[in-house]
Amino acid sequence: MKVAVTTSKEDLLLISRAEAIAAELDIPYIKRRRTSLDKLRNEHNLDYLLIVEQDRVILKGATILAWHPSMAVPRLKELREGKQDPMVEALGLKPGYSVLDCTLGLGADALVAASIVGENGHVTALEADKYIAFITKWGLQNFSGQNTHIQTILERITVLNRSYDEYLPSQPDNSHDVVYFDPMFRYSLKKSSALNALRPFARHEPLTEVSLQEAFRVARYRVVLKETSKSLEFSRLKAHLVTGGRYSNLAYGIWIK
Ligand SMILES: C[S@@+](CC[C@H](N)C(=O)[O-])C[C@H]1O[C@@H](n2cnc3c(N)ncnc32)[C@H](O)[C@@H]1O
């Protein structure tokens, strides 16, 4: 994938941010001049441009990848109203828990988990793709809406641009209360436009037995895998328990210690 950084306009502050991002991601910075984004992309033969705007960064090519808490907001509202969230139930989340989210994506699940674990808990979130990790981390760190409740929650999430395959073996036994996987589904539901935007960048490999065993070693209480309700992954990986799915397209495989 060929990607370069530019700015939404010729502005000194944006340019210095763009140059720093180019260095961090080890990709070229291209001066915007007054050229249209499509022309710039064609001239440099790029798949995507990472565009630094005044208050956000986006990846624009055939699709647009941008971070927004919108996927998590309705779930946070329902939790505040006392309703149950299937992921929270599957993980058995409690205040004070440490969560290892192995598949950050756009961070909606990490945000919901961070809201439940509270100020004494923590979410460490891994993302193998450097662009997704960057866009989500930037969004989490620079969120500045009116919603101070969300801002407090975001501070409990640490994003690492790492693959769980290499991160899990480096972790001590029982070092995270729960370990969570939400990989790209084997057969996609093709519904979520946010996930469609992730698709060109995302890692698509299935969870291996080796990584699951590592996760089980690292987890103090349980490991959870989200998949579609008809997925064969739960039987392939011998889940101890599968929840959800009766009224939903989604299900959770659980391995309890
Ligand atoms: C379905 S998305 C996760 C969505 C996320 N739960 C959310 O709420 O936004 C799956 C993500 O996991 C990432 N991923 C896949 N394999 C990975 C690996 N081995 N290590 C870390 N991240 C991985 C993909 O790149 C993708 O961004």
Question: How would you describe what is shown here?
Answer:
With about 260 residues, this protein is of the alpha/beta class. The protein folds into 2 domains: about 5-60; about 70-255, Rossmann fold, CATH 3.40.50.150. It has helices at about 10-25, 35-45, 75-80, 85-90, 110-115, 130-140, 150-155, 165, 195-200, 210-220, 235; strands spanning about 5, 50, 55-60, 65, 100, 120-125, 155-160, 175-180, 220-230, 240-245, 250-255. The strands form 2 sheets. It has a 7-stranded mixed β-sheet with strand order 7-6-5-8-9-11-10, with helices on both faces. Strands 1-2-3-4 form a 4-stranded mixed β-sheet. Strand 3 and strand 4 form a beta hairpin. The chain is globular, with a radius of gyration of 19 Å.
Strand content: 15-25%
Low-confidence stretches: none
Q: Main beta sheet, described? A: 7 strands, mixed
In CATH, the architecture of the largest domain is 3-Layer(aba) Sandwich
Task: Please name the defining characteristics of this protein.
2 domains; binds S-adenosylmethionine; 11 strands; alpha/beta; 257 residues; Rossmann fold
